[in-house]
Amino acid sequence: MIPEPTAASRSSQQNKNPHDEATSSGAVNHSEEDSGNENRQKSVRRRKRAHNGSENVKRKKGKAGCSRRVGRAGGSHSKQKHVEAVTLFEVITMGRSAMQVVIDDWIEAYVTDRDSSLLDLISFFIQCSGCKGVVTAEMCQSKEDSDVKSKMVEELDEVAGLQYKKFLAFPWILTVTWPMDSDSAEYPLVQSGPYGRWFHSEFCEFVSVLVGQCQHSVIFDGYLMNTLISLLTELSNSYVRAFRHTCTLAAVKLLSSLVGVALSLSVGIENSQKLYDVQKKKTARQKSAQQLERIQKKISELQEKRAEVESMMDVIFKGVLLKRYRDVLPEIRSICMEELGLWMKLYSSAFLNDSYLKYIGWMMHDKVPDVRLKCVLSLQGLYGDPVLLPKLDLFTSRFKDRMISMTLDKDNEVAVQSMKLLVLISKTSDDVLTPVDYKQLLQFVYSSQRPLAATAGELLFSRLLNAVAPASDTQDGVNEEEQLKQQIFARLKALLEFYQDSQLHKHVVYLVDSLWDCGGSLLKDWATLTSALLQEPSSHSSGFTQAEQAVLVEILVASVRQASEGPALAGRSGVKKVMNAREKKIQTDDCLKLTEHFVTVLPKLLSKFSGSCDIVASLMRIPQFFLSEGPEAENTQVASTLLAEMVAVLHLHSGPAVLEAAARTYLNLCGDETAWCSVARASRDSLVQSWMDQLTTLLEDSVKGDTFSADEDKTRETVSTLKKLRAFHNCHDLGQWSVFELLSPLLSVESSQGGAPTEVLLEVLQCLSYSLLWSLNTSGETLTCREKAVAQRLQLRLFCDRSHRCLSHCDLSVRHQAFLCVCDVLTAHSYQLNVWDPTSFGPLLYTPSPKLQRALLTFVCTHVFIGSDCDSQSRAMTASGSASVSETSEVERLEDLHKRRNLLAAYCKLIVHGVLEMSMAAEVFMFYMKYYNDFGDIIKETMYRTRQTDKIESARTLVLSLQQLFVRLKREQESGGRAQPGVQTFTSIKELARRFALTFGDLVKFRECVVMIHRNGIEFVFQEFSQTPETATPPYLSYLTILSEFSSKLLKPDKKAVFSYLQKNTAEHIIDLREECWQPLIYYRASLLAVAEGEDAVSYVSSDRKPNRSPLYKQKIEGSKSPGPFSPADPKAGKAPKLSFSPSLQERTADTDPFSVPLEPPAKRLHTEGSVLSTANDPDDGTVEVEL
């Protein structure tokens, strides 16, 4: 039972006498208006207006028992009259200045009447917990009362819908009563949005101000703090989350404020002790015994107060934190760890020891990231103070492994802060981390998270690169410069050694990005880096090896890219996406500096390393980052020198990396906005013309009639020239050189009659496809008349026809390349048709021939969906589990899978862009489940795109794929079990149908599609079927079992139409439900009827009907003339199954496999008369009645 207020309490409320209320008992009633939700009702405008405290003059009139007026004492100051009607809870909304005024008034009232003022303070904490109930106070004469502990309860009254907590806050026994559903409501601390954060900060500020204003007066009266600590300790142990969370926060903030009081007392003791020592050292004439005694007395008083404060802190720590640091609520655990770290840092003499540090060490294993983060941040504050390090030795040795392992934390912020903690430890203590630890931590410079990688880069820079001894002091300025240069070379040596030891030789850009924030000055010292590359080995300097020079060039190029484009890298997240004005200014200045430097130095580098293909390929990428505007932009002489060196390099090398870098660099230099465009274009045109002349000469000698005849040297030279032409044609429009007319005859040569070599065909196919792509891309500019459009279509047709022949080439790579080129050209042509402006000339319509379409489909089926019939994932697991499969074969398998995915994606683009009929995707869709792990994402995206184009036709394609699979399965069964290509089991077909059905998420949007699927399936089964004694059932009747997977996607109105359509198609046939051969029909009908009742077909067919009926019941059913087993008026008609068949069939349903494909009807017969099914008049409630 909830205790009622005593008579004295009621009389005190009626008389409104605070002294009577404090001596007997009191009640504080929190209505919904003035309770925990009161702060939600305050407008933002009033909170902004009340920041000075003096503008909160007018308040709502107070209610009796709801709030106690603070301004009791007479003679208050003028500013106090502005807030004299403000309660402690309301003052939270008014800022720090108003808090100080109201708390000062509360202290004055406490001195006058401490019991009633304490009740106000208790009411404040109850309100801050969001409680809407009643607080009743009873006097307690003694803590040792035997009945006190028996009264401390926290129970529920389910009948009254209330819950209450009774606890001791001496000298009162407080009873808090509130509604049961208040625990689920949002209390102020956990409210979402800015209000929750604002309330948290203001609540903590209130506790701090309260202790700060009381520290010189009532805090040591032995009454206030005892009551307050007792209140917070009891409420923090409540099972109610709001009480526990709010009062735990108040308790730890109270302890933090007491730490401040203890620190101020310690300062006072130290100052008094200094004064005492000064007085004691004075001579006998100057020394005053009375003054010494007074100082000693002050020191003793301060020490007693500090001991009392430390006792309070110890009580709070043991009563609150020791119980709540393992609380089930992660917010409470975070609060405890955050404040514990603060206490250790501020008051290390009392808290910084192993008995307190162990709690932070334990909670670093917490399962919630925020708790682990608070532990790491607390440790950062401790390790950042060199004075505290000696006290952390044991903790470091015990929890060092855990701190290192937290760099692998799944939460990114925890991992970053853990790495920062270890960086701090490495700077303050050299012997804590071992070389093994450093080796593990430094590998994080290659992390995918940039904040973590940047922090690891700081560790690398401070550990390795800054470990180089500084340059020695000399008098000669030249020697100083040389010493600084040697120091930079030593840092570069250390960086190269680390990179080579890490054995991750393809991640230079990530290493540079990690070091950019801390070592950007070193990486942007391009003058020193290039001088290190250009210097020759001497007697006093060994220089860099060839391998080190290659790595140094990669670092140089990566630093240039970083300065020009910023830290955005593929595969690395956590990058700041928007740069401010200062960062943009720095980026522009860096681009200007690198342009001025490399435009003169780069030709020297290219000349020196012209024999190394890899180094030259990296160096030729640098001009891509040049700034088009600058002091050197008008100097065409330096640009001509650079281009001449690039031409010289292209004459020596034909590797793909060099050619791609050169083509992209020319593309950047030939832009209209660059000052070097005329020089660069002239150089490019000269290069291309020389290649075309050389290629024309070679082909005139090699191609004679229908044969390709060339020796090995000419073939090698032809391939080299074609590679250069192909690389530049990929980036530049070379239509003026008539590349298509020159190279297209090579595809007409039959391979059986001495055709072109494989290497030549691969390059020719790509060059021709690039030529057509550029022609289509520039159609709006080049097609000025119909004759040119017709010529373009003739080129497209010629290319497709000749590439069609290459699809049957003996070499696999040629077949793949021909397929990809045809798909790319057809996709680009379709795109240009869609974006073409009808007011101008454009590309003419071209449709691939049916023969080419079939060839493309056959190519996909034979080159993409290959392998055993088992799932690709199981094949991969088997391959990885086999001991004979090496790592090389696994890499080859992945590369082969990547090629097959490209082929499938190219074919699906033709479907999506409308080049091929949508029905040609049926062959692809049927492999959706079989190759789900390899190609499931591509096929699913194709379904989504085709459904956006035409959802009805897309649904027909899904049905077509299911029907083709079913027909193949039937043919295999009829052929005696001989294996047929592309045949799947009945279970896999049914699973495929289920996955197809799951793609129809919005039932209203795809309503027509689902109905069409059912109508098409019914027609597939019953159309063109004539019943004979030999063929009693349709041959494809089992397809209805597959079709039933789509029944759950039917809307209630549509299921009647589908059911009627099914009855219409089955009305001409004699259906004997006693035969098991009709089981698929029964299963399908059940799936249609079960839709309305939320069941599936299996549960519907095997519903809990009683299998054994009495003969009287059977006669009753057979002789019944009602339209159905249940009349429409029967209340159970909506729940009972609508399909009636014999009990023996019901018993057998659970034993027969509904997914099997019956080849012949079973011999076993049923013992009841057959029934003809027909639909009765549709009832108004949407159900379907079945007439027997």
From TrEMBL:
Residues 42-51 have a biased composition (Basic residues). Pfam families: HEAT_SCC3-SA, SCD, STAG. GO terms for cellular component: chromatin; chromosome, centromeric region; cohesin complex; nucleus. It is found in: Nucleus; Chromosome; Chromosome, Centromere. Belongs to the SCC3 family. This is Cohesin subunit SA. GO terms for biological process: cell division; chromosome segregation; sister chromatid cohesion. Part of the cohesin complex which is composed of a heterodimer between a SMC1 protein (SMC1A or SMC1B) and SMC3, which are attached via their hinge domain, and RAD21 which link them at their heads, and one STAG protein. Residues 1-78, 1101-1188 are annotated as: Disordered. InterPro entries: ARM-like, ARM-type_fold, Cohesin_Scc3/SA, HEAT_SCC3-SA, SCD, STAG. Component of cohesin complex, a complex required for the cohesion of sister chromatids after DNA replication. The cohesin complex apparently forms a large proteinaceous ring within which sister chromatids can be trapped. At anaphase, the complex is cleaved and dissociates from chromatin, allowing sister chromatids to segregate. Residues 321-406 form the SCD domain. Residues 1178-1188 have a biased composition (Acidic residues). Keywords: Cell cycle, Cell division, Chromosome, Chromosome partition, Coiled coil, Nucleus. Residues 30-41 have a biased composition (Basic and acidic residues). Residues 278-312 form a coiled coil. GO terms for molecular function: chromatin binding.
